[in-house]
Fold:
Amino acid sequence: MTHIRRIAAVAALSAVAVAALGTATAAASSATAAASRATEPPISAHHPATRTTTSRPAAAAAGYLARQLTGRHHDHYDGSYLSGKRTIVYVNYGETADAILSMDAAGVAQRAAARATRYLEKHVRAYAGHSAATYAPGPIGKLLLVAEAQHVDVHSFGGLNLVSALDSTEGVRGAAGGEFQQNPKGTPAKYDYFSTVSQALAVLGLADSPHPADRPDAAAVTFLAGQRCAGGGYPTELLSSPAAACAAGKDIDSTGYAIQALLAAGSPATADLSWLRSVEHPNGGFDHSANANSTALAIQALVAGGKRVGKPEAWLVAHQVGCSAPADRRGAVKFQGTYDASALLATSQAGAALAGKPLAAIDKAGARAAAPVLSCPAVRK
Structure:
């Protein structure tokens, strides 16, 4: 069967995918969104004493993320894409969830993280699905990680039992045993899409639950492990024949999520870790054209596997906006070489990697309320 990526599904799930699809179009709406992005008082290089400062890269990234939140209550992010001549703006729930996890991982910005979590609770069904026929396992898995990190009841997140909702998608409507069904009921076959990332997030979210009864069953873990390509690594899409999916190439992001999920579920990922290390660029970056999101996911997977990540972390730090930039950009992580609209997407995932925390290890315990700014020398008049 031919599988076609559906923009709506990709946008709902992953900030990485939106970065790839919408970098140019996001810039078109960035000026409008920026007008309402003022979570904290405006940053001024002339008034450094009014803000909590930090020299830690992860905390600086978290502070940047907090100040980019938009909406009347500064509690979420928007994304956009072009449809003909129109720019369509949508709520980017996945990116919002990623940012919460980065704030929690850094141990700061909890006022912002709490607001964003409440927003996700309020709109949980818009992201997770409205019923058993439309529940989306990838988004639910990501919401489980947020709930677990933010100490919110996973059995009543905005009134939705995330565990039951996720379990209801396993093995239904033609899905294989252990596979979480990713396509809403009635989706035409030609639009079916089966994402390795979604399967991995579902397994990871369940494996990270504080309740032993919520952990993924053996079938779900076995199905994910069964998608492994020869020599380690995972493809972007799940197919009935893993070999056919692997023929299209192994994917850094899918592998990063799969490694974290398998290790959290108690399943080995030795070959996958070896493959991931083998495709690291000499400078520490990851992906064919090294970028912050893929490098961040690789770091989290390697840390989860007990591997050293000095060079990849240095790559991220080298792509973080520093004191020479305008004050409102400091702490952001550039997707590649230039600060642009993709920086928010990049920073939402890179922040947790800068903190050295795999997704299953993120917890807000002990985190501070304030959203710090990067510590820079005072500007002399």
